[in-house]
Amino acid sequence: MRYVAAYLLATLGGNESPSLKDLKAILGSVGIDCDDALAKSVIEKLKGKDINEVIAAGSSKLASVPSGGAAAPAASAGGAGEEKKEEKKEEKQEEEEESDDDMGFGLFD
User: Fold this and answer.
1) Cys bridge to 24: 32, 34, 52, 72, which one at CB 3.0-4.6 A?
2) Angle 69-3-11 (CA atoms, 0-180°, nearest 5)?
3) Predicted confidence band at 67 (pLDDT cuts at 50, 70, 90)?
4) Mean pLDDT along residues 3-16
5) Are the C-beta atoms of residues 3 and 20 closer than 8 Å to each other?
6) Which has the closest alpha carbon to 8: 59, 36, 42?
7) What is d(CA 48, CA 44) in angstroms, rounded to the nearest whole number?
8) Neighbours of 53 (CB within 10 A)
9) Is the distance from CB of 8 to CB of 22 less than 8 angstroms?
10) How far apart are CA 35 and CA 24, in angstroms?
């Protein structure tokens, strides 16, 4: 992912065909070591392609992937009442403990 990000940064900077040296410079500027084989692989796969088209194609693929985020809250909704009761008990205990700490005077008295 870091190599793709470096490639995108180079193209956003105006370099239409970044080289291995460009990717090394970008990654090195933030203290990341560059694996030449992985960087070359990214360069070869993106060589000659319009970055905007690649991003658009990737976005359409991601749109078709189900995220499954709605299922998790529905599964935990059954135990929500019990959790609230436990939280109220804990809050009452904490309030009682806090009232003992003031020793009869407040911070701004």
Assistant:
1) 34
2) 100
3) confident
4) 91
5) no
6) 42
7) 9
8) 9
9) no
10) 9
Distance CA 4, CA 42 (A): 7
Q: Do 4 and 42 contact (CB within 8 A), yes or no? A: yes
Structure tokens that stand for 109 in this block? 């008295």
pLDDT computed for residue 20 by the predictor: 94
One-letter amino acid of 15: N
Q: Locate 102 and state its tokens.
A: 């003031």
**Four-point Cα dihedral 99, 102, 103, 106, nearest 10:** -130
Neighbours of 24 (CB within 10 A): 16
Place of tokens 């939280």: 87
What residue has token string 């070359």?
40
Residue owning tokens 């019990």:
82
